[in-house]
Design brief:
The chain is α+β, with helices and mostly antiparallel strands and about 260 residues long. It has six helices and twelve strands. The termini are far apart.
């Protein structure tokens, strides 16, 4: 955790800019120009301030989300690693209740795999340890959002902005992870009219969604905020994200795991 006495003025300014955008529902300019540098640590310093503020306002942490798991997106932003953000309990949306579009600024939707942890994940985690800690695997939709106007983001912008988190929807549990091969999961996301919005596979998520979970567990532990039993972890996208317009409805089918739905007012 960052000491309050060592927080850079630019980090504080970036946190306030993003907080204001969230509060007013008016997207803001990028924050990278406010920051002392564009390092990974600086981005997470802003994110940490935002998280502290939300917790102080009564927010309850429900888990984490992993982003930038696609090699193509990493190349686009000039990075060689994923990022993560914090999930809060009020970000979870029931799949059979329309989501209020006014809660969001510039939403996009993507299909993912969610892991519900049955045990803590701390320290030097490997794939076997990560699998053993997963209580349930669940099809999920993440509604990503950006407080930054026009999605004009670099790596440090999206990390600072809680990894461009918005809301998320969990489907019905597919049961234990066990030895399931998640690389073989095929994903198709369709709109209400039956048209295909996005396709992809488990292999598109860092080669295997379990790899994403291992990366997050190690990174979170290094930052002093290890993953805990009961938390939800969103794996990262299995296919391209799709813009959301008012009245949209989506269904994602993940082979072997089931379906998950989301609709918008």
């Amino acid at each position: 955790m960052t000491s309050a006495s060592t927080i850079d003025a630019g980090v504080r300014a970036a946190e306030e800019r993003l907080r204001q955008a969230q509060r007013t529902r008016v997207p803001c300019p990028p924050v990278r120009g406010l920051l002392p540098d564009t390092s990974v640590g600086t981005g997470y310093a802003v994110q940490e301030l935002l998280t502290r503020g939300r917790v102080a306002d009564g927010g309850r942490i429900a888990g984490r989300k992993i982003g930038l798991t696609s090699p193509a997106v990493q190349a686009q932003l000039g990075v060689d690693q994923p990022d993560f953000g914090v999930l809060f309990a009020d970000m979870a949306c029931p799949q059979d209740r329309p989501i209020d579009r006014d809660r969001l600024l510039q939403p996009r939707i993507e299909a993912e795999i969610a892991f519900v942890l049955a045990a803590d994940l701390d320290g030097d985690v490997d794939a076997a340890g990560a699998r053993a800690a997963v209580g349930e695997v669940v099809p999920a939709l993440e509604i990503v959002d950006s407080r930054i106007a026009g999605w004009d983001i670099t790596f440090v912008d999206t990390v600072a902005d809680n990894a461009s988190s918005g809301l998320y929807v969990l489907g019905d549990s597919a049961g234990p992870l066990g030895d399931r091969d998640l690389t073989a999961v095929e994903m198709t996301m369709t709109r209400a009219d039956g048209s295909v919005a996005s396709t992809g596979s488990g292999a598109a998520c860092l080669g295997d969604p379990v790899n994403a979970l291992v990366w997050l567990a190690r990174t979170a532990a290094e930052l002093g905020e290890p993953l805990r039993a009961g938390e939800v972890v969103l794996s990262g996208a299995l296919g391209p994200m799709v813009p959301v317009t008012p009245g949209d409805a989506f269904t994602a089918e993940l082979s072997g795991l089931g379906t998950v739905r989301a609709s918008f007012t």
